Amino acid sequence: MFDVGGQRSERKKWIHVFDNVQVVLFLAAISGYDQVLVEDRNGNQMREAFGLFEAIANSRWFERSAMILFLNKIDLFREKIESGASPIRQTFDENYPGDDRDVNAGMEYFAQHFRSLVKQPNKETYVHFTNATDTDLLKKTMQSVQDMIIQRNLNNLIL
Fold first, then answer.
1. What local confidence, expressed as pLDDT, does residue 40 receive?
2. Closest CA to 14 of 59, 48, 71, 46
3. Phi, psi at residue 19, to the nearest 5°?
4. How far apart are the C-alpha atoms of 35 and 159, rounded to whole Å?
5. Do residues 128 and 144 lie in contact, with contact meaning Cβ atoms separated by under 8 Å?
6. What is the tens place of the pLDDT at every residue in 39-80?
7. How many CB atoms lie within 10 A of CB 88?
8. Model-level pTM greater than 0.85?
9. Which residues are CB-contacts of 41 (< 8 A; sequence separation ≥ 6)?
């Protein structure tokens, strides 16, 4: 497992190194839908994550790689949505179809948007909602991911 860095200036340094990768783990802060980028105050964190995810998921370097998306900081997202402090409709997408205080609708909205960015119809794409400070949730999520990776590798050996 490698952390390759997410800042724009770092991306071109690593993308070509990962030929023949089985699984790509992609981490995005779901709570960043109303946040700006550090390097570009006009850019939105979630829109930047969409663009990077789309580029990686559809890259020739990752044609045969499954995508596992971790939408992290679900606790902060839940707090923003439930409190009404930062409605998705007002801060991110005026056409957001869900209720302003419906956390599950917001979670599904972002998960579905990420899934829609994958151009290959049969590409395995999994979404997990995480909170890095909730060790039980993180442990269960990582066990699930590990099981999926092992199963995928066993299937590749059989073929």
1. 77
2. 59
3. -70, 140
4. 45
5. yes
6. 777 889 999 999 999 999 999 888 888 899 999 999 999 999
7. 24
8. no
9. none
